[in-house]
Structures are given as structure tokens and as C-alpha cells.
Amino acid sequence: MHLIQLYTDGAAKGNPGPGGYGAVLVSGVYRKELSGGFSCTTNNRMELLAVIMGLEALKVPGSQVTVYSDSTYVVNAIKKGWLYKWQANGFKKVKNIDLWLRFLEVWPKYRVDFIWIKGHSGHPENERCDRLAVEAAGQSNLPEDEGYPSFL
């Protein structure tokens, strides 16, 4: 059985504004870091995208994955069952539908548990994810976040 820790964070300079995500995957001695950014997005989108990108990077279906996130938005959506309610209601009045649908495609492939950790509290992997997200948000020539309405 593959046991994987997925640490995630998202950032946005302004909300909305330039944003980025960071993810660190750890399994035994193996480690992989992921990051990316967009010219105009939100912090919540980047928090959720960090989880999605981490899960999409996995190769072995059925792996046990523990996601560590400082996002109450993401963790509570899963742990408190909000996502199921949103889905049953056809995602009416829910933001980031495109990302939640993408999450719902990848999530069932693994056995995933979510753990909320306090952000900026000195947790080494969370701090690394924060640096990855902030650095990604600060890049020049960032692509457009096609799922985020630029007219808002």
C-alpha cells in the first residue's frame, strides 16, 4: 500500500489578483514539489487547485493519501459534507464549480483523508507550500485562470 502525505497551500496577491498554488507530495524517501500561478484568481481557487494538482500527480490508484491544508474552505467542504450538499443541489450559488467538478473526478481514485493545519505556524511543509505558492503568484507573464470570471 502506498502511503502519501500531500501538503498544500494557495496564495493570491489581492483577492482577486495574481495567485499561485504549491503542493508537496511525500512518500517514504520520495518527494515531489508542484507549483503554478495565474494572472487573476482567488485564494480559495488556489487552495483547492493545490489539492487537485497533488492528487492528479499521483500514479497508483487506491493509495492512502493524507492531505494537510490550512484552508478551512477546502477541509470543511469535505469533512463537514458541504461538497455533497453542493453536488446534490446542482452546485447552485457555489463558487469554483469548475474546480470542484475536477476534484470530484480525481478524488475517488484514492483513499483520501483531510487534516487542517494552522497556516504560518511554522509547520515546515506548509511553509514550503506557502513559499511555492507566493513565488508562483509573483512570476511574470502568468496565464489566465480560465475558470475564474475575469469580468468580476
Mind sketching the topology for me?
Layout: E1 3-12, E2 17-27, E3 30-41, H1 43-56, E4 64-69, H2 72-79, H3 82-88, H4 97-106, E5 111-116, H5 124-137
Parallel strand pairs: 1-4, 4-5
Antiparallel strand pairs: 1-2, 2-3
Helix pairs in contact: 1-4
Q: Overall 3D geometry? A: globular
Sequence of secondary-structure elements? EEEHEHHHEH
Q: State the secondary-structure class.
A: alpha/beta
* Number of helical regions: 5
Unreliable residue stretches: none
Outline of this structure?
The chain is an alpha/beta fold and 152 residues long. Helix content is 35%, strand content 30%. The mean pLDDT is 94.
Descriptive notes:
The protein is an alpha/beta fold and 152 residues long. Helices cover 35% and strands 30% of the residues. It has five helices and five strands; from the N terminus they run βββαβαααβα. The chain has helices at 43-56, 72-79, 82-88, 97-106, 124-137; strands at residues 3-12, 17-27, 30-41, 64-69, 111-116. It has a five-stranded mixed beta sheet. The chain is globular. It starts with a strand and ends in a 15-residue tail after the last helix. The model has no long low-confidence stretch (mean pLDDT 94).
